[in-house]
Write a structure and sequence with these properties.
Helix content is 44%, strand content 19%. The protein has 17 helices and 17 strands. A 15-stranded mixed sheet has the order 4-3-2-5-6-7-1-8-16-14-13-9-11-12-17, sandwiched between helices. Strands 10-15 form a two-stranded parallel ribbon. A hairpin with a 3-residue loop joins strand 13 and strand 14. Helix 1 packs parallel to helix 3 and helix 6 runs parallel beside helix 7. The protein is globular and about 80 Å long. The protein starts with a helix and ends in a 6-residue tail after the last helix.
């Protein structure tokens, strides 16, 4: 009898092993076919296929959670177009200087949005200048407010915005708020509960505890966007939190740069917010409360460039590549995190090799030590080609700026890393204006005091170089 039981269990074990082996084969084959058909980058495809065959069950599970882009199909179905208002004065036709016309055509092809004339821009430093301007705009709102922030903390700064939004809602303004489901507090954002307590319509971007709806830890909305009455817009790098109020001397201050925009380009900002709102909440925002006619407010040509792992994939990165390729004299960049892809590294190096002055400003020490380590292992080819890398003194500056040939400016939320260029949902604005470029150049020049030398990079000890090189392998995820 004991022998019969043992034989029976042996048979069951053999069946179970063979069944698992067959299941692993089928799953690995499915991953292979899906990766071959859908992965654009050869390295990514090889990595996922290799993982699936080496560990069929775990590898296939990881691919199902992190390797399949489900966002693409959902986002493509949600176009939102501004309402055209008759009788509103239109801006003069846009005419950029001849050297920038190839770049303008590249923007046309990438964004399918017009370069709008008649805009005005104002630079705001840190939360000290940005928050009062934003709160004043919210207090003046008559029809609509759309606010999107990667980080919105439940602290004094966040509370000031909640009170202002609640007051606007109480006087009949349509208020819509989006906060990122990870950046604003991981799985239990306190600020979201505060918004709910005040009855403010709010959504958490890609937030769900259900595994098949929350496999997007890397796919976040990194936008910092405020649109008021469809007429006033704010964009840039400033999140909402006490650390951005530098004048109050917080424990870990974050310097940053934000911008107020007025003019026809605000319609494109509102369109971007409305598209995200529809994506998260399934509701369309339309009508003159959100899309009024927008007369000229200045003289600057401007256009919104959005990017994300959907139909907008890599648009900001491609816009940057176009700017690098068409630059004639100078390229100036400031970014808090600098881990560009190989194609961007090559483009920067080639620009320097053909005699263009290329300056990159990064923090002496950012708020992510791993990024700093990986950066030191990443910039050798740039230094050898003549790119100058400058180390901005503390406190940490979170600004993202780019100026080409002292006229073309690129501002917004995108950092110079793979996460921003290919994984996150980002929003930048391109502007053509020598005066505004001069203002940004003055800001950048003040940071260009300490230069990172080739000797400093080469002089790191072997343990440090090994550490930095190892962390650099995580480049797609940092």
């Amino acid at each position: 009898m004991q022998e019969l039981v043992s034989a029976w269990f042996g048979l069951l074990s053999a069946i179970r092993v063979e069944g698992l082996a067959l299941l692993g084969f089928v799953l690995a084959l499915a991953v292979t076919l899906h990766a071959l058909l859908n992965k654009r980058e050869v390295g990514a495809a090889i990595g996922w296929i290799g993982l699936a065959w080496l560990s069929p069950l775990a590898g296939s599970a990881l691919y199902a959670l992190f390797g399949i882009n489900r966002v693409h199909r959902r986002a493509r179905r949600l176009p939102v177009l501004p309402v055209r208002q008759p009788g509103v004065p239109q801006a003069e036709p846009v005419l950029v200087p001849e050297p920038f016309r190839p770049l303008e055509r590249a923007g046309d092809a990438l964004t399918r949005l017009p370069l709008t004339g008649g805009n005005r821009v104002a630079l705001l430093r840190h939360g000290d200048e940005a928050y009062p301007a934003m709160l004043e705009a919210i207090a003046s709102a008559e029809h609509s407010i759309g606010l999107s922030s990667y980080i919105m903390r439940d602290d004094a700064s966040g509370e000031a915005f909640v009170r202002a939004l609640a007051a606007a809602k109480a006087r009949g303004v349509a208020v819509c708020v989006l906060v990122d489901g990870i950046g604003s507090g991981y799985f239990f954002p306190a600020i979201y509960r505060r918004l709910e307590e005040e009855g403010i319509p709010a959504g958490l971007f890609m937030h769900s505890a259900v595994p098949w709806r929350m496999p997007f830890l890397n796919l976040r909305t990194h936008k910092k966007l405020l649109v008021v009455d469809g007429r006033i817009g704010f964009v840039g790098g400033v999140n909402i939190g006490d650390e951005n109020r530098v004048s109050l001397n917080p424990p870990e201050p974050v310097r940053d740069t934000h911008f107020r925009l007025d003019g026809p380009v605000v319609g494109q900002l509102t369109q971007a917010f409305a598209r995200d709102w529809a994506f998260v909440m399934g509701e369309d925002l339309d009508g003159p409360a959100w899309f009024p006619g927008l007369p000229p407010a200045g003289r600057i040509p401007a256009r919104v460039v959005t990017s994300g792992p959907d139909a907008d994939i890599e648009k900001i990165e491609f816009m940057v590549l176009a700017a690098l390729a068409t630059a004639r004299h100078s390229i100036r960049i400031v970014t808090p995190y600098f881990l560009p892809s190989e194609i961007l590294l090559t483009s920067l190096a080639l620009a320097a090799m053909r005699g263009i002055a290329v300056d990159v400003v990064i923090p002496q020490a950012s708020n992510h030590r791993l990024v700093d380590w990986a950066t030191r292992a990443h910039v050798g080819p740039l230094l050898r080609s003549g790119v100058r890398i400058w180390l901005d003194r503390p406190p940490f500056d979170h600004s993202k700026l780019m100026v080409v040939d002292d006229a073309w400016c690129f501002i917004g939320s995108a950092n110079w890393d793979t996460r921003s260029f290919r994984l996150n949902f980002e929003l930048n604005v391109e502007l053509y204006d020598p005066d505004f470029a001069a203002e940004l150049n003055r800001l950048l020049a003040a940071k260009m005091e300490v230069q990172l030398s080739r000797d400093a990079v080469r002089g790191r000890g072997l343990p440090v170089r090994l550490r930095d090189a190892g962390v650099r392998l995580l480049l797609p995820y940092l």
